[in-house]
Amino acid sequence: MNVLVSRQVLCNALSLVALLLYSTATWATEPIKAFPQAEGFGAIAKGGRGGDVYHVTKLTDDGSVGTLRHGIESAPNASGRTIVFDVGGWIDLNRKLGIVDSKSNITIAGQTAPGGIGVRGHQFSVGADDIIVRHMRFRPGKDAGRVDSVGTNSDAERVIYDHISSGFSFDENFSVQASDVTLQYSTVSFGLESHSAGSLLENPHRLSMHHNLYAHNNTRNPKHRVQETLDWIDNVIYNWDTRAFYMQGTDSSGYFWTSNIDGNYFIAGPNDGGTKPISGGSQDDYGTWWGVNAFDGDKDSAHDGQNYSLGDDDFSDISSAATTWSDTRYPVADEIWQNASPKDAYLRTLSEFGATPWARDEVDQLLYENVVNRTGSIISHENKLVSQGVSNGGFGALGGVAAPLDTDGDGMSDEWEQKHGTNPQVPNNNGDFDHDGYTDLEEYLNDLGAFAAVGQIEFHGIGRYADWQRWDRRWQPSRLDVLQVRTGVAFVDAVGQQAGTLRLGYDAGGDARLYVTSGWLEITNQLVVGSRGIGRVEQYGGELRVLEGDIQILNGAYKLRGGLLATPHLTKAPRGSFEFTGGTLDADAIDFSLTVAGGTLFPGVDAIGSTGIAGDLNMESGTLVIDLESASAADLVNVSGVASLDGNIEVQLLNGFRPTAGQSWQILTARSFDGQLKVITPGFSVEQIGDSLWLVAGTSPSTLAIPEPHSLALLLLGVLGYAANRKCRQAVFALALVAVLVPASGALALQVPVIADSQLSENGNTGDGDANDSGSGTGSPINARFNDANRNEWLALKFDLSEYSDKSRFTDVSLNTYMYRGDANNTQTLRLYALAPGIAGEDWNESTTTYGSMPGFTFDADSQTRLIDGNLVQNLGAFGVSGVTAEGSVASIDPEGLTSFVQSMGNNNLLTLLVTYDVPHNGQWRIASRETTATTTGVLTGAPGDLAPFLDFTLGPVPTTSVGGDYNNNGIVDIADYTVWRNLLGGTSLLNEEVSPNVVDIADYLYWRERFGATDTGEPASFGQPAAVPEPPALSIAGLLAVAVLGAVKYRSRN
């Protein structure tokens, strides 16, 4: 940032950039997880976040471009890569495939493979940091020889495997020696005899293994030698022979291997060799915390395992291990979200294990059936499964599905990008459309691989719905999750927000609110507003869509004031209310009498649909929109009671349909009709026949009393219409809106940059002797020479910093000068001084051609720190100039004292800097020329004659109170913060802002209202109780809704 800035930034200025962006979004305070459902020690693996995208386009393994091997081996060393698949099927490896230690930060996204992806023929290994592997199959097969299916070696740290299928190994199916690793929702099964083994965990550090299926492995299910804890949680272990969970007894010479064993379900199968589920170990080498685990050892088909706790009389039925039993759980990074019982863990693991649980391949489906029916056996070759119905030599078939279109190659399908408002023609994999820390590509991958949380996820506090840290266990909601806001306030202000079922104030004592201001929230099943507690929804913009279920308003209110609300079914109880004063409602069925007081009733937005109302329809104002698609296809509203129509009817034509005169459509049925329609789309009229209202083409109503809008509304609409067609439409509209909503005393002032004033002084006079400045604007340089007798020649530079109220935020301040010219030896040492602010240099004549008198900048004979006239001067330090001989060179003057001097200026806005020689010298130097223009510097601007020196600095973050909603940063959320919000409406940032990042809009007002009275980062003391919160005038709210409409236009036309 500099004092001399370009005048071509008008659109940015109109966007009201009044403060440095400083966000208090809480997601920055905790490490973001690899993906929302990641758990355990490997949960914070970064993977390819922020890196490039590589597409696997062929299944060969020759290392050419498009192969998986090339994608791994050509990955950048640290900047990150995400590997996606445009093909599905089996990749036959010619040799071991590994991620070596120099190739960190890689994500392998198997969920993108059409029809599934698998690797066979050799081992896959990881030896690098921050690796994410999801939805992959690793099955080398017997012909690969003695290799693991998957190995993670000691060079690796922070690795997570999620939903992988690992098997067909003649050694171990999954082995680990690394640190901070998670294996979750996977299967480690079908080890091949004569060395059928599950996992060898040989001295890794910090390993989480949860919700995995281990089946048909003779031994090592797993073999545990984990330092700093193996978290072995909620796994299912079926049909071992020699060993299940195995602690190898040994003289460890100082090793002490620890584990937490809880929630697991052990099931003896047809190959049972009589070994207890837990065996081996020694008290000197092992420490174990035992929770509650189940064992079904009777080998029948009934699912009737028994739970075992440490100390039970029959505990020896499940364990013969020699270990030191711990009374408390060993420490872990994050406790796994466990099921309520081993039986529940069994059911969840069976529903979620493997590469693609939504469409299991033949091998994983066989595994599922084996466990459920207690069938199957340990095998010696994968082809043994052919007789059990598995094709392709026992591997099963994959692929056969076309990949979705990805025009820009950023890893995301065009269809998904269009839905989320990004441009499918422009790569944006590293964007962040909802400002939550996950890139757009990660959001896409998380959507493809979403699965439900173990239990209900609860929202906490007051903040953004998109803020994953406000949800239990940092579990960002997906379309499959059951969510609750019990006492919090959530703001939907971005696209891409999801829920399976959302409950507001559902539990007793609950008092929850949901604000929808922009973006969209998509709910798969159900929205429940209140129940035993109170729930409220206020929608001002954006979209809330329920896809399959309904909205139940049981105890509380839904206030639709703007945006789109779409649901198959809308219902309310006696303690519920629905207020419809704006926005658009698209509902298939409404089971109560509906009053429309300003909104739009739209049966089937942009498609033919119908709405049934179990009660009356009272259209006090607002609009009924009817789509016509053909001579026989039209929207229809069925009202069981009375239809009072005092609003408008708008007709929209779909798919190029053009009606002809005389055609008619039944658009509304009711027991009876009353009221008087105000406006009908020209070219149409309505006719009542019995209990039906018909729309007729080709005629128009004779006279309509169209109300005149308020003059201000006309202005707003006019500006909106103009702004919608301009590149900076948002900024223009916001300025116009502020101009009519904000009183003159709070009007915004656009800051105009001030060009530095400069002049020379010799013994208190300008333009004398060797110091000269013609002021002609024709190119005469500003020169200064040093007289050996006195340090009496100076170049004085004046900077007006009134635009920056808080000088303490200035960091890295330097003086940048346009040109120098040295003497013959081309080396000079100059010194920079500063006048004490506010006492000298204030009375400069600022004519561009001549300068009047000013204080003499000559040292007092008796003091090197005082000028002749007595004013103080501060020595900021010396700086050398060397090697600069040609005009056009730019030098940066950065003495150590300059930054601290500026920071200490307080409320003084005039900075006066003095430049002179440091030692007696008769050389000539130049610091600026009057003809300097942007065309010659590439940095500086101004008409010919402007002087070029400029101040360069960085504005550091404003120290904030971190009290959300405290927009004036004084430690309390009060009425003064409303004024700040009002004055910055339409801008890009607020201090202590949490909702609607990068835009100041109605969401920020609503957040302030919810936080009114707060003095800390938690909830205000009056939360949940009525508070006297100042309300803006109704006109302001109307204007804000216009902003919300503009925001919706921006989302639809983005990029």
TrEMBL record:
Keywords tagged on the record: Calcium, Glycoprotein, Metal-binding, Secreted, Signal
InterPro entries, A to Z: Ice-binding_C, Pectin_lyas_fold, Pectin_lyase_fold/virulence, Polysaccharide_Lyase_1, TSP3_bac
Region Disordered, annotated ranges: 409-431, 761-785
Domain Ice-binding protein C-terminal: 705-727
Signal peptide span: 1-28
Transport found in the keyword field: no
SUPFAM superfamilies in alphabetical order: Pectin lyase-like
GO molecular function: metal ion binding
Subcellular location: Secreted
Top-level taxonomic group: Bacteria
Biased composition (Polar residues): 421-431
Protein name (Swiss-Prot/TrEMBL): DNRLRE domain-containing protein
Organism: Aeoliella straminimaris
